[in-house]
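One-letter codes give the sequence; backbone shape is given numerically. An example follows:

. . .
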Amino acid sequence: LSEVICKWFMPTSGCCFDPFAGDTVFGYVSSYLGHKFTGIELRQEQVNFNNDAVKGMDATYICDDGCNVLQHIGENSQDLLFSCPPYFDLEVYSDLDNDASNQGTYADFYKIIDTAFTNATQCLKDDRFAVIVAGDVRDKKTGAYYNFPNDIINTFKRNGMILYNNIKLLTPIGTASIRATKYMNARKVAHIYQDVLVFYKSNAKNIIA
């Protein structure tokens, strides 16, 4: 996915970034393809690991809150935003108070996501793309979906970016068939895809091959 996104939605060479850069894959792949990558990650131990993984490449991971992205990346300086933020409490990454995955309510979680992406849109140049990978999450008490991807869409639209593509990323089925048997006791259907939301900043008529 990282390679496809770089080749489809970036110039031949440019700068890309991620305010939720807990993974090494995009930094490694984008740098290998000739781009400069900057990632913001909350956990120091993960930053150390990531920087070791991309040593000698044009990729840098910085330890800070993703909401502070503008303190590290200049406005209108980046050619692509590519991010896969936490999916609320589906997986808790740390016990840090400002960790989005460690919030007590979905509202508190999404406030962090909204602030980080609102600030991140200011780092993008005009006529550039933002690509966000998001999967929906259920409320553990009620079983209802939070509609997480739609909240992300609303954040970017509020910040002047249009939803240009919605790509479905099929995930390995793995244990889905086993989980489906249990889920159907409550008439839940197993989710086996994620949304790859592609946003565009400025006028879509300026998009060229």
The mean pLDDT is 94.
